[in-house]
Amino acid sequence: MEALIALVIGVLTAGGVFLALRGQTFPVVLGLTLMSYAVNLFLFVMGRLAIGVPPVISEAAAGYTDPLPQALVLTAIVISFGMTAFVIVLALKARAELGNDHVDGLEHEEDRRA
Amino acid sequence: MTLLFTVLIPFAGAALVALASHFGRAHSAWAAGVVIFASMVLLAPLASLPFAGEMLIQQQDWIPTLGLNLAFRLDGLSLLFAGLILGIGLLIVLYARYYLSERDSMGRFYAYLMLFMGSMLGIVLSENLIQLLIFWELTSLSSFLLISYWQHREEARHGARMALAVTGLGGFAMLGGFLLLGHIVGSYELSDVFASADHIRAHPLYVPTLLLILLGVFTKSAQFPFHFWLPHAMAAPTPVSAYLHSATMVKAGVFLLARLYPALSGTTEWFWLVSGAGLATLLLGAYAALFKHDLKGLLAYSTISHLGLITLLFGLSTPLAAVAGVFHIINHATFKASLFMAAGIIDHEAGTRDMRRLNGLWKYMPYTATLAMVAAAAMAGVPLLNGFLSKEMFFAEAVHIAEGHGSWLLPVLVTLAGAFAVAYSIRFIHDVFFNGEPVDLPKTPHEPPRWMKVPVEILVVLCLVVGVAPGLTVAPLLAVAAAGSLQAPLPDYHLALWHGFNTALLMSLIALALGTVIYVLRRPLIAWHEAGIGRADARVVYNALVNGLIGAALRITRTFDTGSLQRQVFLFVAAALVLGVAPWLASDTPLTGSRAGLPLDAVSLTAAAALILATVATVAWHRRRFTALVTIGVVGLVVSLAFIKFSAPDLALTQLSVEIVTIVLLLLALYFLPQHGAAEASRARVGRDAAIALVAGLGTAALAWAVLTRPYDTIAGYFLENSKPGGGGTNVVNVILVDFRGYDTLGEITVLALAGLGIVALLQNLHLAAPLHDTAGRAWDADAHPVIMATLTRILLPLALMVAVFILLRGHNQPGGGFIAGLITAVALIVQYLANGAAWTHQRMASDNHPLIAWGLGIATFTGLASWAFDHPFLTSTFGYMNWPVVGKFELASAMAFDLGVFLVVVGATLMILTQLGSLHHAEPARKETR
C-alpha cells in the first residue's frame, strides 16, 4: 500500500510540474492544483498510513492515527482553494490588461499559431 | 527608568514638533526647544551622580529569552556627551530658526533633528552593546534624512547616500564586532565587558573583533581612508553640519573609542591601527583643508583632521593621552560648532561661501567677524583659548611617546599638522574678513538677526573662559568624563595655561610660525596643489566601486531573470531538484526503511489506477481545457476517497466540498479564457519539461516511500490525551484547529479573507469579452436557468443549510467543523446562483459578503481577546455543559464561537470569490443579447 501511495504522489507531482512549466495560464493553474493534491497527500501521509482508526476519541476505538498532519492539511486544502482562486483571477486580469493568456504577458510565437 | 525616558522624549518629540509646524513656522522651533529642555530637566537630577563618583545603571527586560535588556548607563563620559548633545542641540534649534528660509519646511527639519538627537542620546547612554548598535544605526538613518534635507538638490541626495552607504557598512561591520565581543565575554553589558578586559585582549578572536569594531568607528568618525563622505555631507543645511560634525554624528565614532578604551586598548594592534589611522587622518585633513575654497569645505577637512587628532590620542594608549582626547572632544565641539554657525551666517548674509569672492567682510559684519576670529584662533591652538590647552597636552603626549620609542617622527609630523591647522585658520579669517574687497557678491552682506548670533556668542565665550581659566570651569567635568572613559583612577595631570617653557610649547610656537609662513605662501601652494594632488578625488573611487557593484548585481539578475515567468518557474524547479537530488546521491542511507507496510487491496488499486489515469489524461489533454477540467475533477474525488480510506474523515469532507467550489470556479474562469490551448513552441521544450517532471515525480515518490517505510516518533499523544479533558472535544483534528493551534487557524482564515478581498479588487473594472458561441460554434442555450434544476435546488437549499448547521455544531466531537460547514453552505448558496441566476438570488439574500467576512474575523479575534479578560493568554478556550430542554445535555465551548468565526469567513470569502467572478459576465452586454 505504501508503494502505491508513493506512486500516486509521484504521478501527481510529475503531472503538476509538467503543467506548471507550460506557457499559458490555464494549464499552469491546473498544474498548481495537481501539485496541491500531491503536497497535501504527502503531508497527510507523514502521519503514516492507518486504516479504520480516525482521531476521534471514543471508548470503542481500537487506536488513533496521528491527528496533527490532518489538522495541517485541512487548512492547507482551504488555503489551496484561496490560492487557486487568486491565481485564476490574476490570469483573467492579465488577459484583460495584456490581451493574451501567456504567463509572461507577451504574445509568443505559439499563441499566434493557435 | 529616567534614562530610558531621556532617550525616548526626543523620539516622541519628533512627532510633536512635526505637528506643531501646522500652527506656524516658529511653533516647531519652540516645540523642539521644549522637547530638548524636557530631556535636560529629566537628566539634571542625575547629573550630580558621576561627580559623586557613582555610576548609574538602569535596566528593563526587553527580550529576556535572547538575554537582551534595555540597559542604560550614566557615568562621566555619558554625561559629558549627553550634555554636549542636548546643549549644542538647543543652540542649533535657536540658530536654525533664523537660518531656514520661508521655503524650507520647519516641521520636517526639526522632526529629523529630534530623531537624530534621540538616537545620539541612545548611543551615549547605552549599557547594552546591541542596544547601542541599534541607536548607532538610527543615527546613520536620521543623519541621512538631515543631510538630504534639501531633497531637490542633487548633491544633497548624493552626499546623503554616500554618508549612509559608508556609515551603514561600518555599522554592519560593527555588529559583527559586537557579536564577537559578546561571544568572548558572554554578555553584551558594558560592565561585564570592562570586567573581562584582560580576557578579551588575550582571546584568539581579539584581532577580528577589534578590526570589525574599528571599521564601524572609522567610518563614522570619517577616518582615513573612509573620510571622503564627510565633505560631501556638507550639502546639508549649515545647522545640520554644525551639529553633526561638531558634537554628534562624527563624535559617535570617537565616543566609542573612548567607551571601549578600557576593554580593547593597550595592545600593539590597537596602538598601530588606531594611532596609524588617526595620524594619517590628522595630516591629510589638515593639508586638504588649506586648499578648499569653500568655507564649509575648509571646516569639513578641518573636522576630519581634528577627529584624526582625537583618534591618534586614544591610539597612543596612555591614560594621559586618553584624558587629552576627551578634553579635545569638548573643545572641538565648542569651537567647531561656532565656526560652522559663523560660516552659515556668512553664507546666509553674503549669498556665497566661496573664499575667492568673500573678501573684506570686516566692514559689513565686524561683530560676526570678531566671534569667528576667536573661534578660529581656538581651532588654530592660540594661547588663552581652549584649543590651545588640549593641543598642548597632545603635543606633550607625542613627545612622551617619542621619548619612549626613540623616534622623533611623530612630534615632527604632528607639528606639521599643527602648522597646517594654523594656516587654514588664518585663511578662514584673513580671506573672508580682510584681503581686499568682496568680488561680485549676490547680495550686500550685513549682520545677521540678533538671535542668530546668540548661539555663536555662547560658544565663543565658552572657548574663552575654558582657555583662560580651565581649572575653574571645565576641570571637574573633564575629570569625571575621563574617569568614565578610563574606568580607572585618573593619571596625574594639571590643567593650566603655563607649564613652563617645554618641548610642547616649542612645538606650538613652531606650528604658529610655520603656519603663518605657509599661509603667506598659499598662492603658489594652491596652484601647485591644484595642478597635482588636488585632482585626486576619493569620490571617483567610491563611485567606481558603487557602480561596479550595481553593474555586477544587474548582470547576475539579468542572467537569471529575463522577464519570463515561465523561465523563472523552470529555474526554480530545476534548482529545487538539484538541491533535493544532490544530497541524496551523496548519502548511502538505504531507500527502504524497516517499518512493515499495509497489504494492498483491489479497491485501493482500482482507485489509484483511476487517479493515475485521470492525471495522465489531464496532462495529455490540457489543451482541450474543458475535458481537462473534468479529468482533474476525478483526481480530486479520488484524493478525498484516499482521505476516507486512511482514517481522515475531516479531510475527506473538506476535500470533497473544496473540489466542488474549485471546479465551479475554474469553469467560470474558463468562460473568459481560450477554450483550447495553443500548440507548444517546440518539441525540445516539451521534452525538457517532461524530463524535469519525471525527475520531480520520481524524487517525490522516493521520498514518500522512504518516509512511509520508516517508524517515527510523534507528538500526537499529547493532543490525543488532552483533547477531551483540555479542549472539551473528541474530534482531535477539530480541537487542534480551534484550540491547540487556534492562532494558526486565525492566521489562515485571515489569509483566506485577504485572498477574497484581493480577488474583488482585481475584478474591479475588469472588462473581458465573453464568447457568443460555444467551442463548436453553437449559440448558448437560450434557457439559462432550466426549470427542473431551479426547482430542485430551491428545495435542496434548506436541507443543505441544515446539514451545514449540523456539521458545524457537531464538529467539536465528530468529523465536521467550521471549515467544512462553511464550504457546504457556500456550495448550497452557489448552486442557487447557478440554477436561478444572480438577479433572482440577490432579491432573496444580501449580495455583499464583506460583512460576513468582517463578522467572522471579528468573532474569532474577539473569542481570542476575551480570554485576556480572564487573565489567560490569547485564545485560551473554556467549555462547560448545560441541560437544554428537549436537546438534553449539551456542551458549550468558547472554541465553538471561534469555529463560528471560521465558518463565517469561509462562507463569506468563498461566496465573494465565486459571485464576483460569476457576475462578471452579467455585466457584459454581449452576453445579455443572447438571453
Briefly characterize the structure.
The complex is a heterodimer of chains A (114) and B (931). With 114 residues, chain A is mostly helical.
Structural notes for this entry:
Chain A has 114 residues and is mainly alpha-helical. Chain A has one domain (2-50, 63-103): Helix Hairpins (Orthogonal Bundle), CATH 1.10.287.3510. Chain A has helices at residues 2-20, 25-45, 67-98, 109-113. In chain A, helix 1 (2-20) packs antiparallel against helix 2 (25-45) and helix 2 runs antiparallel to helix 3 (67-98). The model of chain A is unreliable at 110-114 (pLDDT under 50). With 931 residues, chain B is mostly helical. Among the domains of chain B are: 266-487 and 494-520, no CATH class; 604-679; 730-931, no CATH class. Chain B is built from 38 helices and four strands. In chain B, strand 3 and strand 4 form a beta hairpin. At the A-B interface, helix 1, helix 2, helix 3 and helix 4 of A face helix 25, helix 26, helix 27, helix 28 and helix 29 of B.
Topology:
The complex is a heterodimer of chains A (114) and B (931).
Chain A: H1 2-20, H2 25-45, H3 67-98, H4 109-113
Helix pairs in contact in A: 1-2, 2-3
Chain B: H1 2-20, H2 25-43, H3 48-51, E1 56-63, E2 68-74, H4 76-99, H5 106-125, H6 129-147, H7 154-185, H8 190-195, H9 197-202, H10 206-220, H11 229-232, H12 238-244, H13 249-264, H14 268-290, H15 295-315, H16 319-350, H17 366-380, H18 386-405, H19 409-433, H20 450-468, H21 475-486, H22 503-520, H23 522-531, H24 538-560, H25 565-586, H26 602-620, H27 625-645, H28 649-670, H29 683-708, H30 716-727, H31 732-740, H32 742-763, H33 787-810, H34 818-836, H35 838-844, H36 850-869, E3 879-884, E4 888-893, H37 894-918, H38 925-930
